[in-house]
Amino acid sequence: MSALLESYAAGSWFRAEDEGRPLLDAVTGEEVARISSTGLDLAAMTDHARIVGGPAVRELTFHQRGAVLKAVAKLLGADKDELYALSARTGATLRDSQVDVDGGIGTLFSYASKASRELPADTIVLDGDTEQLGRTGVFLGQHLYTSRPGIAVQINAFNFPVWGMLEKLAPAFLAGLPTIVKPASQGAWLTEAVVRRIIDSGLMPEGSLQLLCGSPDGLLDQLGPQDSVAFTGSAATGALLRQHAAVVHGGVQLGVEADSLNCSILGPDVTADDPELDLFVKGVVTEMTVKAGQKCTAIRRAIVPAAMADEVVAAISARLAKVTVGDPGSEGVRMGALASLAQRDDVRKAISTLRSSAEIVFGDPDRVDVVGADAERGAFMSPVLLRATEGATEPHEVEAFGPVSTVIAYESLDEAIALAALGRGSLAGSLVTHDPQVARQVTLGLAPWHGRLLVLDRDDAPESTGHGSPLPVLVHGGPGRAGGGEELGGIRAVLHHMQRTAVQASPDMLTAITGQWTKGAAQRVDEQHPFRKSLAELRIGDTIRSASRTVTLDDIDRFAELTGDTFYAHTDAEAAAANPLFGGIVAHGYLVVSIAAGLFVDPDPGPVLANFGVDHLRLLTPVKAGDTIDVVLTVKQITPRASADYGEVRWDAVVSNADGAAVATYDVLTLVAKTLDNQEG
Ligand code: NDP
């Protein structure tokens, strides 16, 4: 008997009390492992996540959490061959395994990098600017995101045992949540192997990752209003979860990613001679055959101009005829097996339903030539292409979760858009066209029904990641039938896991709460110029109030000459007088900003290493020759960089004129040495 998969629960590996049920190799039909969760203490798991895992993650800043994800990505990257071997037993070819394993590792790297670049070295995230709620500015509002003291539960589908887990784990971990992973039973041996490596490494804080192999019955009963469940799988299970008391009455947040009848539309502009036709055909064939079509984003409906339908069917069929099916390890095999014999039965059933309004134009659902394996014992299947009859409904309703797609003809673009919408909401759609008008009309028509859209033509094809690849930086999820959930999409997915709260308070209170200086809060001017202070010495609110300087006509003339910016408002008195906003010569905005730098700078070598830009520059009041200006510079935010001897300091800059009116406002961004010893940059 093969090994019983274990769960990682409450700090140790748990072995079920019974023998479990067998999980079979998709290619050979041999038993790979057994699975059972009998006797598993689910309450102990959720308690462990809440009491041990959550606090340990939330103690880390976003940058530290990102560093953990990066280390995990490196760890798994060093061990890919063993994971590929386990993946092959799910029916996956090497290319399929790379989509799953490398795709998952890449997602971790992407989130690690985004955390360090786009999230603060803190445990909260500010959302937008402060809102002034009263007349004088002593009462402000600020939206902020905090971590929930809850648990992220993920219930995954069988098709991506690695990526499916890691793409949910990365944003949840960054958001400060411990995760309990429940993989689909089929293929769970691969997920278990990955979790085992992560746990053995000790890289993730204890309790931040637990694994539930087997039935999750009763798990949702342990969850409450700070917890969330992210589910990927069938619409039927999704519907069951939606009706669960924990969701309906208990406040558990549920994200569902279910069936999706994704479409690809061929534009009416594309002729047989255009490269776009080939791109379209390749896209459909790739999506039918990668992972044997068991991809939630695969193209199920190929929507083409009626006049091109014969040509498209012939071209797709010709390509499919070259796809060798068989043991993923055998030479030349392009498509492996479905995940299980049961899954193949489901796909055959779906095809027979589709056949009530579509005819098979390529492939036989019941027969396939197989290389290197036993066609009966493995879950092999031929790619099957169907062609819909006019007015067909089934292709818009039935998801055959395998190497199956249906060609559907349209007469007008409006009809193409309407056909796409019959899918009632999809994860991903694509349009292949070289006509910008078609691109706009179809994109706007399809967007409300989709989470992601690819517009493909000869120009972006060389770098296109394809119709079916979810990317960590782009939203994955879709409306309606696709479940209504949203995953990935960069930091958006992190924020989905956090609570946004509007906090109303005084500027000083907001500064204390957020750790960022807020306009109107106390400013501290002391003897020492802040440019002489290292990162360790600088404090939020440290301020420079500069001397003032009068801007002369000569300054403006010389700046125009030096820079070549001789725009009439700075050089031609008559023309400038006619300008309704200025009524005369005004200083260049960049001259004002440059003079301000001259006013606040402390010139000698010191801990300030570089100025790396300004944010949010606004020129509010014109500066005329003879006007006097000064600047107030205040430390707004301090962000140490983990891997460097310096950090970033964001300064609030306000340039004012003699009347006290703000002339320019912006943030100055500098790099400052952490200590006075390492000020050499
Ligand atoms: P399921 O919905 O049966 O399973 C998905 C996950 O939910 C698995 O981890 C499963 O565990 C778990 N699960 C099953 N029943 C429950 C329950 N009552 N409560 C909590 N969790 C539960 O989908 P399958 O993986 O079996 O796939 C069936 C069909 O779903 C496919 O043929 C396809 O049509 C569709 N599908 C769609 C995907 C998409 O992303 N659009 C992805 C995968 C599948 P266990 O495996 O242990 O039963």
General description of the model:
It comes from Aeromicrobium yanjiei. The protein is α/β, with parallel strands linked by helices. The protein has 3 domains: 217 residues, 3-Layer(aba) Sandwich (Aldehyde Dehydrogenase, Chain A, domain 1); 210 residues, Aldehyde Dehydrogenase, Chain A, domain 2 (3-Layer(aba) Sandwich); 156 residues, Roll (Thiol Ester Dehydrase, Chain A), CATH 3.10.129. 31% of the residues lie in helices and 24% in strands. It has 19 helices and 29 strands. The strands form 8 sheets. Strands 15-17-18-13-12-19-20 form a 7-stranded mixed sheet, with helices on both faces. Strands 24, 25, 26, 27, 28 and 29 form a 6-stranded antiparallel sheet that branches. Strands 9-8-7-10-11 form a 5-stranded parallel sheet, with helices on both faces. Helix 3 packs across helix 4, helix 4 runs parallel beside helix 5 and helix 12 packs parallel to helix 13. It starts with 6 loop residues before the first strand and ends in an 8-residue tail after the last strand. The mean pLDDT is 95. The chain binds NADPH dihydro-nicotinamide-adenine-dinucleotide phosphate. The site of NADPH dihydro-nicotinamide-adenine-dinucleotide phosphate has 22 residues, from helix 7.
